[in-house]
Amino acid sequence: MLYDYYSGMERKLFAALAAGVLLICLAVFAGCTGTPDAGDGAGDGAKETAKQTPVPQPTTGPDESGAGESEKAVASADNMFAFDLYKQLTAGDNPDENIFFSPYSISSAFALVYEGAKGGTADEIQSVFHFPEGIKVLRDGFLSINSGINAGDPDYELSVANALWAEETYSFLDDYIKTAKDYYSADTTNLDFINQPEESRLTINKWAEDETHDKIKDLIPQGMIDPLTRLVITNAVYFKGDWVKQFDVNNTHEAAFTTASGKSVTVDMMQRTDEDAVFGYMENDDLQMLKMPYDHDSGRELAMYVILPKGNDLKAVEENLDADRLTELKGAIAEKEVKVFFPKFKLETEYSLSKTLAAMGMPVAFSDMADFSGMDGTKSLSISDVIHKAYVDVNEEGTEAAAATAVVMRLTAVMDEEPVPVFLADHPFIFMIEDTDDGNILFMGKVSDPA
Fold first, then answer.
1. What is the 3-state secondary structure (H, E, C) of the chain?
2. What are phi and psi of 115, to 5 degrees?
3. How confident is the model at residue 38 (pLDDT cuts 50, 70, 90)?
4. Are 141 and 286 in contact (CB under 8 A)?
5. Residue 358's CATH number
6. Which among 31, 109, 353, 367 could bridge 405 via Cys, Cβ 3.0 to 4.6 Å?
7. Which of 203, 184, 185 is nearest to 193 (CA)?
């Protein structure tokens, strides 16, 4: 029976992959924020001004799908990074571990990091995140995507936000601050990391909480901000939408779900088995794929894609899944009637990504060899921590998802200036007259009373 087949599928990794695809799709189908104007440089206080300057506009026109070349390049980069990171996060020993993250949130934060990187540091970041070669393509792409995301739609909520948090006594380059505002809508706020690190942490966390509608709390853990912190880069993404074809809560029932380790658990299983249950669908010998769209009006179509292996071996599907394979599978989708059984689930995840990103190919950014001179004109900064938190709730009505990323940058080392010595011979002293060629002491004495 079809119901029994679905109810026996592995729950947690199935839910994780389904949810993980969600924000990938947001990057593909959503399009990015009008940018505020540059304020004063951070070294001068980085204060916001009322002066308005023209908003940069992407130069590449849209294709038939409505996406410009720069937007497609950034979306493609984000998708490649998404699968790279997914493979890293699923490489652990716990087969029943849920995975959920926003690749777009992490990529957005690191686009701002990349803007300030130079030399080999920049090369490594570009490689890990698959950023386009041309900086103009990168900037135009994020500008376009964020503008589309924040344009709004009457039928769903979707937003993205960036911010820079700078130590108030530290000088950042005006060009870096202006680029962050013009292309990434990242306002710069001055904080006193040196004397008030805990208060600064709470301020940043409040911003993340507000931008994610209270879904992401305590983004930066206690103690991560300290007197050596000089810059924190943050991103937040929020989505809430209803299914085009909602599930009847009266049809939701308890059912068995087999996890990857073979354990049987009980879940609330939603179902659509009526004649109006027409969805985008494809299948091959290895898997089934379902497209469940969200209600939309004037904005772009958003949808959840679910990849379900035939049998309880998700690993076999994961091994052959990447951005190109996803595009191939989506291309085979056709609208048809499908009897759908899908579990309700809610996930909350948190990742410390410093070691993961270093292992993926960008170790220099986390070392004292880092070059972020594009931010401050020196090589004094490195990344100390990368925190990512995500939330998703899938139910009969639709989906709510949120994520936030924080990149914490600090001084690589503190070089204390040597004090200018004072030699005040106002008390007895010893003196010697020495042959400096061989160190032979020719004369030696002590002065106790020079008068």
1. CHHHHHHCCCHHHHHHHHHHHHHHHHHHHCCCCCCCCCCCCHHHCCCCCCCCCCCCCCCCCECCCCCEHHHHHHHHHHHHHHHHHHHHHCCCCCCCCCCCCCHHHHHHHHHHHHHCCCHHHHHHHHHHHCCCCCHHHHHHHHHHHHHHHCCCECCEEEEEEEEEEEECCCCCCHHHHHHHHHHHCCEEEEECCCCCHHHHHHHHHHHHHHHCCCCCCCCCCCCCCCCCEEEEEEEEEEEEEEECCCCCHHHCEEEEEECCCCCEEEEEEEEECCCCCEEEEEECCCEEEEEEEECCCCCCCCEEEEEEECCCCHHHHHHCCCHHHHHHHHHCCEEEECCEEEECEEEEEEEECHHHHHHHCCCHHHCCCCCCHHHHCCCCEEEEEEEEEEEEEECCCEEEEEEEEEEEEEECCCCCCCCCCCCCCCCCEEEEEEECCCCEEEEEEEECCCC
2. -60, -25
3. very low
4. no
5. 3.30.497.10
6. 109
7. 203
Per-residue exposure over 288-309, b if at least 16 CB sit within 10 Å of its own CB, e if not: ebbbbbbbbeebbebbbbbbbb
Query: Domain of 66?
Result: 2-242+345-411
Beta carbons of 197 and 227 less than 8 angstroms apart: yes
pTM higher than 0.85, yes or no? Answer: no
Inside any domain, residue 375:
yes
Task: Return the closest-CA partner of residue 207 out of 192, 198, 221, 217.
Answer: 217
Highest mean pLDDT among 26-30, 115-119, 310-314: 115-119
If one counts the domains in the chain, the total is: 1
Say which residues have a Cβ less than 8 Å from residue 137's Cβ, sequence separation at least 6.
60, 69, 70, 73, 74
**Residue partners of 244: CB distance under 8 A and separation at least 6:** 292, 293, 294, 295
User: Using 50, 70 and 90 to split pLDDT, how confident is the model at 16?
Assistant: very low
Find where tokens 């901000």 sit: 225
Whether residue 38 lies inside any domain: the answer is yes
- pLDDT of 176 > 80? The answer is yes
Is-contact 21 305, C-beta < 8 A? yes
Domain annotation covers residue 77: yes
